[in-house]
Amino acid sequence: MKECPCGSAKPLATCCGPYLEGAPAPTAEAVMRSRYSAHVLGNADYLAATLSEDQRADHDEEQARQSFADTKWLGLEIRRTELGGEADETGQVEFVARYRSGQQHAVHHELSYFTREEGRWVFAGCKMNPKAPTVRVEKIGRNAPCTCGSGKKYKKCCGA
């Protein structure tokens, strides 16, 4: 049995295969993985079929087919998902895909947005190279009161 290109370690026939043949993907992550598999396998029809109505307006199928000849996909890593379950109407999947174009190795990092149209998950857009939210950390001075509420200076209490 051929292993699925999406990296699930499952056979293609029981992983992305049914979706590539027309079965609806149950989650946003499943349609994202199957779209990656479609890129690997050169299935431009599936890529077009899983675009939202808005995305189809800008889709160039000939350009997609040309990219298949130039690109060798090397692996997929799902970083996180948000919503996109069987009961949801929208979802997000952040992923990193490695590929080679010609002799150059590259990384494609994307936060994909998915929505349901007529009950089926479709790709609705993306943000390239998403950044994690900035985390602000407040520095506690050594002579400041301890944050635990003991009434002692930080340096004599929790900062010791």
Structure report:
The protein has 160 residues and is α+β, with helices and mostly antiparallel strands. 24% of the residues lie in helices and 30% in strands. The protein contains five helices and four strands; from the N terminus they run αααααββββ. The chain has helices at 17-20, 28-41, 44-49, 53-56, 61-70; strands at residues 71-83, 90-101, 104-117, 120-128. Strands 1-2-3-4 form a four-stranded antiparallel sheet. A hairpin with a 2-residue loop joins strand 3 and strand 4 (120-128). It is elongated, with a radius of gyration of 22 Å.
Residue-averaged pLDDT, rounded? 91
Instruction: Provide a count of the helices.
Output: 5
- Which bin fits the share of residues in helices? 10-25%
What is the distance, rounded to the nearest whole angstrom, between the alpha carbons of the first and last residues? 60 Å
Number of strands: 4
Low-confidence stretches: none
Q: Which class of secondary structure composition applies to the elements?
A: alpha+beta
N to C succession of SSEs = HHHHHEEEE
Major sheet: arrangement of strands: 1-2-3-4
> What is the beta-strand fraction?
25-35%
Q: Measured on Cα atoms, how large is the radius of gyration?
A: 22 Å
Largest sheet descriptor: 4 strands, antiparallel
Shape type: elongated
